[in-house]
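We emphasize that the prediction below concerns an isolated chain of 247 residues; any contacts that depend on oligomerization or on bound cofactors are therefore not represented. The input was used exactly as deposited, without trimming of termini.
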Amino acid sequence: MRRHALLLSAAAVLAACQGEPTNSAPPTTPEPERPVGAEPTAMRDETTGAVPDAPPAAGAQPGGLQGGSSDWREVATADDAARLSRLDQAWRMARAEAEAKGFASEVEALGALVDPNAALPGRLQPTPGDYRCRTSKIGSINGDGLGYVAYPWFRCTVELTVGGDLILTKTTGSQRSQGLLYPDSERRLVFIGAQAWGSDERGYPRYGQMPERDQIGVLERIGDQRWRLVLPWPKQEAKLELLEISR
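Result of the prediction step, given as a token string:
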């Protein structure tokens, strides 16, 4: 991957700033996460037979990364940029569907995580290291599925590479994401990445390599040592996908 000066160019602005579903049928395309309380299945190396704790570190392989620019607009496809431009609509329609289908109390119980206006200014960049993370999916992609799906806690990491890339990775579970965080405003970073599916995949596809796996969203700080990755109009299952990240 060609390294870019993502954080070097943004440091002055951002230095002060970072299961099978419990209530639904399995996703139709990617393999579902394991149930709440179940341990995720580790991926076995087909060559050595070793079972690592997590997929290879982001800096050790190029999957899921897109370097060469500190401006996310120069990286995102036109289709994905359009998804991000409709973020407000995704919030409205997803929450309306969840409430109409009887999940109002479950969604409200998530508090700031599901408040569209909860993003806080400053300290946007999570400190590199290990985090716990969990996914909530609100609304269904075509309106025919469940209005709300909750997943258990898994593991995420944030890595700052020697080239200046800030990388967010969901390392466990059968739906795993990896991508770069780009500066955007005082209240959000933009995430561009891709998903790996199932326990037999090692690493992650590059953004643009498999369009059905591509992801775009915003990372926002919603508390002390608490962030959310908001993915509007994901290409599978939901109208809005939230990844809560905390320590």
